[in-house]
Amino acid sequence: MSVETQKETLGFQTEVKQLLHLMIHSLYSNKEIFLRELISNASDAVDKLRFEALAKPELLEGGAELKIRVSFDKDAKTVTLEDNGIGMSREDAVTHLGTIAKSGTADFMKHLSGDQKKDSHLIGQFGVGFYSAFIVADKVDVFSRRAGLAASEGVHWSSKGEGEFEISTVEKADRGTRIVLHLKSAEDEFADGWRLRNIIKKYSDHIALPIELPKEVAAVEGEEQPAVEWETVNRASALWTRPRTEVKDEEYQEFYKHVAHDFENPLSWSHNKVEGKLEYTSLLYVPTRAPFDLYQREAPKGLKLYVQRVFVMDQAESFLPLYLRFIKGVVDSNDLSLNVSREILQKDPIIDSMKSALTKRVLDMLEKLAKNEPEQYKGFWKNFGQVMKEGPAEDFANKEKIAGLLRFASTQGDDGEQVVGLVDYLARAKEGQDKIYYLTGETYAQVKNSPHLEVFRKKGIEVLLLTDRIDEWLMSYLNDFDGKSFVDVARGDLDLGNLDSEEDKKAAEEVAKSKEGLVERLKTALGDSVAEVRVSHRLTDSPAILAIGEQDLGLQMRQILEASGQKVPDSKPIFEFNPAHPLIEKLDNEQSDERFGDLSHILFDQAALAAGDSLKDPAAYVRRLNKLLVELSV
Length: 634
Hints:
The protein is an alpha+beta fold. The chain has four domains: 5-232, 2-Layer Sandwich (Heat Shock Protein 90); 239-381, Ribosomal Protein S5, domain 2, CATH 3.30.230; 393-498, Rossmann fold (3-Layer(aba) Sandwich), CATH 3.40.50; 502-633, Heat shock protein 90, C-terminal domain (Four Helix Bundle (Hemerythrin (Met), subunit A)), CATH 1.20.120. Helices cover 37% and strands 19% of the residues. Helix 9 packs parallel to helix 12 (399-405). The longest helix has 24 residues, at 349-372. The chain is elongated, with a radius of gyration of 33 Å.
């Protein structure tokens, strides 16, 4: 190798310094996974070369036999890993090895907790597996050249994992990357062929290209050292092409860690081969934990796409709808061309058929998980529930199926956990109940204690309590489930149908008729503040509530629109009062119009507060309330 030129010393990005500190202080409880991470990166580099070489065969530089080689030197205490993949330019090396790439650096540091076990799960999520080399090495040298560049444009990157790294230009005849780990004194166990072979078999057997180690050949005294013979130590076949009966759970789990760059086992997976009109194989995984960028809808997502076992695309987002963006895995098609692009994928009718089938496959997998492993599904819902709630709006064809997977808090629980499915809700519905009742709000405490629930408590009717910001938007797309329509208990004129007896209905009509005078007085007193005033059928304990008009936006949607700076349509609430409440009886008997008006506005403002809304004129409310308190104390 020629003399190094253009040598410079650069500082690591702040986030990398903190990450390296965690690595060097044994963040991982299982040190041997450094090799898995480096092999996984090398495999990605080879996949990228294969893909780019479809359009530019000259990038192969006459060497189409793609592989990864791992070697060691016991005397020098080094482990070397070499691939003949896409390689790096000088700029690539600075970008990829000196910073945590992508948009997640701030999120990454925000998630670090100081708990080594928890923090170790984050490393894979942020694509920073390369730095795991510093778990076992006190110095790392990287020699690389990007395919297509001249031999004189090789790069040497070197660091001791402290605050900085050196980078220089070197001569490198072959494309690809060679990583040399200078092992710490306590980690020389890894400079051993048997140890390395076992690690590769354990973690990287599924890698679909040869991983080679030097063959152990006994030296004969007096003879020249024989040339190094290499042998493949992994199966080197694409795992998804093997029959399911031949693949162990451990192999599926390790392949997931490779394909998803995750350090935890997946929650579930589905391996399926389709033959007939379309021919493709899919291997889909549900992660255990949500990635940091789950709610960034523009973040990279999608499955690894292969065409006849040749890697084509890393994040092919056309095969699953956006609400399933957390699913990881591969799809290998026999029907697509090798030069397929993202633009072509979006227009190809074959993709529509595959997307429909893969979506059903995922939903079936989640249904099975919910039915057979309810505790695991509870964990899934905590991580991915809000994303699943995007489904009914995006995927009309599977709306009923998605609805069955949704989970909510309800008046049956006492801790606000979202564990109630619609099937269970209907199974314990009251006899004659033909509606699914729900209430939306900002917090669990607010909706649980809402006056809107009083009649439901009295009759023992379960109500779903929805407090996620997305919930009101979700319910605008969910009209019914299993033939039962959804009813917002805070909206319109509540009709309990068969749950109210004929006697109850008749009594309510008579009460409403007897209070027509009070209704008119309240309409006059509240004026433009309300759309309507009426006797309430919802209340048993509270004096008054505000109901929402059938076509009006609820409070959640109004707040979301206001926060985003959008114009909110004008609407006025419906004021409902409880004729049996002592305050309403006093109000009905009040002779002074001024005092009647003050009391009416106080009740209106209290009802707004109980609904979680803010007051239009807080000072007027305080003034009226103080006036009333003075009168009571005289």
